[in-house]
Task: inverse folding
C-alpha cells in the first residue's frame, strides 16, 4: 500500500507574474507582499557529543532569523540522537529567539547565527541605542551559552530544569538513543517576540528508534520530517541544512524563491542548491576541505546543463517534487509553484501531536513507497546525490546559486582521518549509485541530458580511480628499483606525448585552482590529499562495495580539541588515530621510500 500524507496534486497555476531576476525590486517579497509561500526549514542532528547542542541551536536560531515573514516560516529540528540535552538547548534557544529575532530585524544583523555574530562583531561605538541593545543581547547570549554548556558538560538535565518544560516527560520512558518512542514537541507556535511580532514555528522531533528497525540514517530523518511537517505547517518549499551549516545571509530564502517563481523557467525547477562553504578553512587548506574547484567550476558547469547535484545541505526543494512528483505527469509539463494562497493552512497544536507521532514511528513506512518512490531514497550513504539524480531522471531541473556572500557556512574536517572517512562514505555512496536502479550508466540514458550524466559519472567513478592511482604510485617505483624500463627515454621522441600530457594536465589543474581563489601551497596540498584519498578512501570504498559490506554512516565530528585545533591552524597534518585508511597511505609511502633508498644505494655502489 502506498501511504503518503502528502497531497502532491494540490498544485495549481500561479496568479501573478513571478520575478525573473535577483534585482531588489524583483525580489519575491516586494512583488508578492504578504502572499509569499510558507517555507519549512529542516535542521538535522544526530549526536550531542560530536554535534554540540550549542552549535545546533545557533544554526536553528540563524535560520529562524531569515528576512522573511516569520508567520510563513516553520523550523524543525530532527534529533537522531534523541537527546534531552539537545531538547533542553532548543527550549532555551526558543526563549532567546524572542530577543534575537527583533535584534536581527532592527539592526540587519549578518551572520544570523548568534555564535558566529558575537565571534566577529565589535560592539557598536558611542552611546547609541544599538550599543545598548548589543550589550543586552550579548549578555543574554552568554547566559544561554553558559546554561547549555553547563548541562552538556554534566551530560544530563537536572531535575529542577526538567520541571521547566513538560516536554521532558517524554524522556521518562526513554531507554537509549537507539531505543525510544517518537517525540514531537512544538516549542513555539508563532508566539510573539519581545516587540509583539510573530516568531516562526519551532518544532523538535526525535523519530522512533528500535534496535530491530533499520533507521536509514539522514534519509530516514528527512522523510520523517517531511511527514511530520506536512501536518504542522505543510510549507510548499523546504530548506534542509546540516546542524553545523548556519545561515550566513538573511536574503537567502528570497533569492531561492526568485528561481522557483521565475515566469519562464520556474515551473521546471525542483531544487535550488547553494554551495557547501566552510567557516574553518585555513589559507592553504591542508586537507583540501574547501572543495573549491568543485564549487567554482564543476557545479557551475552542471548548472549549464539542467543543474547541479543535490548535496544534502543548503538546498531548497519543492515539497511535492521531493515527495515523488514527475515532471511529465503534471498537467502543464512541469508545474508552477503551488497556488499557496488557496492551499489549506494546516494547523496543529501541541495537544494534537500524539497523532503526528505516528508519522515518526518505525513502522509507519513498512510496506509503503517511502524511501523508494516517495521522499529521500534509502540504501545509499549519499542519500542526497541519489535523490537528486532520481529527481533529474523524472525530468526536473535544478539550479546552482553561488552568491558572493556565502549563504551557509559549516565545519570542514580538521584531521586526516576525518577527511579520509568522509570521502570513503561519499565515494562508496557514489559507486553504489552507479550500480543502483538509478545508474547514470543505463537508467539515466534518455532521461537526463548526456552532459549531466557525464557529470554524475565523474563522481560515481571516484572509487574506481583508486586502482590506476595505486598502480601509478607503486609500480613505477618498483620498476625503477628493478631496472625495468616503463617509460621511453627522455631523449626519445616517444617521450613527448607523456611529457605533453603530464605538463598540460598539471598546468591546467594549477591555473584552475588559482583562478578559484586558491594559493600555490593550497594547490600542492590539494594534490597530495587527492593522492591520499584515492589510495585509501576510494580503495576501501571499492572493496566494501564489491564485498557488499553493511551500510554505515560515520558522522563527521564537529568538535575539535585544543591541541588538534592548534595544529590545524598551523596547517600541520594530523595523523592522530591509526585506522586502516591511514595504514593504506603509510604502506604506500613506505614502499616508495624503500624503492627510493634502494635506487640511491644501487647508484652509489
Ligand atoms: O543517522 C544520521 C546520520 C547523520 N545525520 C545528519 O546528517 C548530517 C550530515 O552528516 P555529517 O556527518 O556532517 O556528514 P557530511 O559528510 O559532512 O555530510 C554531507 O554528506 C552527507 C551524505 O553523505 C549528506 O547527508 C550531508 O547533507 C552532506 O553535508 C548531519 O547534520 C547529521 O546530524 C542524521 O540526521 N542522522
Ligand atoms: Mn558535515
Result:
Amino acid at each position: 500500500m502506498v501511504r503518503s500524507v502528502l497531497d502532491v496534486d494540490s498544485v495549481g497555476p500561479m496568479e501573478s507574474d513571478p520575478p525573473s531576476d535577483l534585482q531588489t525590486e524583483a525580489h519575491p517579497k516586494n512583488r508578492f507582499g504578504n502572499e509569499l509561500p510558507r517555507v519549512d526549514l529542516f535542521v538535522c542532528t544526530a549526536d550531542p557529543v560530536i554535534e554540540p547542542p550549542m552549535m545546533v541551536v545557533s544554526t536553528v536560531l540563524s535560520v529562524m532569523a531569515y528576512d522573511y515573514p516569520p508567520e510563513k516560516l516553520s523550523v524543525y529540528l530532527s534529533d537522531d540522537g534523541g537527546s534531552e540535552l539537545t531538547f533542553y538547548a532548543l527550549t532555551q534557544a526558543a526563549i532567546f529567539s524572542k530577543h534575537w529575532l527583533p535584534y536581527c530585524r532592527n539592526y540587519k544583523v549578518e551572520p544570523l547565527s548568534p555564535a558566529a555574530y558575537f565571534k566577529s562583531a565589535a560592539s557598536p561605538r558611542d552611546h547609541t541605542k544599538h550599543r545598548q541593545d548589543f550589550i543586552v543581547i550579548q549578555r543574554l547570549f552568554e547566559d544561554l551559552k553558559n546554561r547549555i554548556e553547563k548541562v552538556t558538560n554534566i551530560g544530563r538535565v537536572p531535575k529542577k530544569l526538567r520541571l521547566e518544560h513538560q516536554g521532558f516527560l517524554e524522556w521518562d520512558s526513554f531507554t537509549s538513543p537507539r531505543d525510544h518512542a517518537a517525540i514531537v514537541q512544538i516549542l513555539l507556535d508563532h508566539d510573539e517576540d519581545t516587540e509583539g511580532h510573530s516568531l516562526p514555528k519551532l518544532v523538535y522531533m526525535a523519530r522512533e528508534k528500535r534496535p530491530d528497525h533499520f533507521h536509514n540514517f539522514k534519509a530516514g530523518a528527512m522523510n520523517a520530517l517531511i511527514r511530520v511537517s506536512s501536518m504542522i505547517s505543510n510549507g510548499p518549499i523546504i530548506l534542509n541544512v546540516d546542524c553545523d551549516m548556519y545561515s550566513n545571509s538573511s536574503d537567502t530564502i528570497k533569492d531561492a524563491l526568485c528561481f522557483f517563481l521565475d515566469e519562464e523557467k520556474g515551473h521546471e525547477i525542483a531544487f535550488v542548491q547553494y554551495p557547501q562553504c566552510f567557516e574553518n578553512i585555513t589559507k592553504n587548506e591542508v586537507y583540501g576541505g574547501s572543495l573549491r574547484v568543485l564549487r567554482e567550476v564543476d557545479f557551475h558547469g552542471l548548472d549549464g546543463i539542467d543543474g547541479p547535484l543535490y548535496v544534502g545541505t543548503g538546498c531548497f526543494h519543492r515539497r511535492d517534487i521531493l515527495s515523488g512528483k514527475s515532471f511529465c505527469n503534471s498537467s502543464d509539463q512541469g508545474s508552477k509553484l503551488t497556488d499557496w494562497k488557496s492551499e489549506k493552512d494546516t494547523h496543529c497544536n501541541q495537544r494534537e501531536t500524539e497523532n503526528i507521532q505516528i508519522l515518526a514511528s518505525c513502522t509507519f513506512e513498512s510496506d509503503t513507497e517511502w524511501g523508494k518512490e516517495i521522499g529521500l531514497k534509502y540504501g545509499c550513504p549519499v542519500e542526497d546525490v541519489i535523490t537528486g539524480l532520481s529527481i533529474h531522471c523524472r525530468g526536473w531541473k535544478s539550479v546552482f546559486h553561488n552568491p558572493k556572500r556565502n549563504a551557509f557556512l559549516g565545519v570542514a574536517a580538521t584531521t586526516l582521518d576525518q577527511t579520509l572517512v568522509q570521502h570513503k562514505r561519499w565515494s562508496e555512496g557514489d559507486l553504489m549509485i552507479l550500480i543502483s536502479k538509478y545508474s547514470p550508466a543505463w537508467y539515466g540514458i534518455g532521461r537526463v541530458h548526456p552532459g549531466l550524466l557525464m557529470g554524475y559519472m565523474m563522481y560515481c567513478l571516484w572509487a574506481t580511480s583508486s586502482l590506476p592511482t595505486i598502480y601509478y604510485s607503486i609500480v613505477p617505483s618498483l620498476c625503477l628499483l628493478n631496472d625495468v624500463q616503463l617509460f621511453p627515454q627522455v631523449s626519445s621522441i616517444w617521450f613527448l606525448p607523456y611529457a605533453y600530457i603530464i605538463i598540460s594536465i598539471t598546468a591546467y589543474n594549477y591555473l584552475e585552482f588559482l583562478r578559484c581563489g586558491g594559493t600555490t601551497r593550497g594547490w600542492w596540498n590539494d594534490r597530495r590529499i587527492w593522492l591520499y584519498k584515492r589510495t585509501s578512501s576510494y580503495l576501501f570504498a571499492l572493496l566494501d562495495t564489491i564485498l557488499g559490506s553493511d551500510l554505515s554512516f560515520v558522522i563527521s565530528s564537529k568538535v575539535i580539541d585544543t591541541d588538534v585545533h592548534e595544529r590545524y591552524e598551523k596547517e600541520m597534518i594530523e595523523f592522530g588515530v591509526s585506522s586502516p585508511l591511514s595504514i593504506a597511505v603509510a604502506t604506500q609511502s613506505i614502499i616508495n621510500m624503500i624503492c627510493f633508498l634502494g635506487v640511491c644505494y644501487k647508484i652509489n655502489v
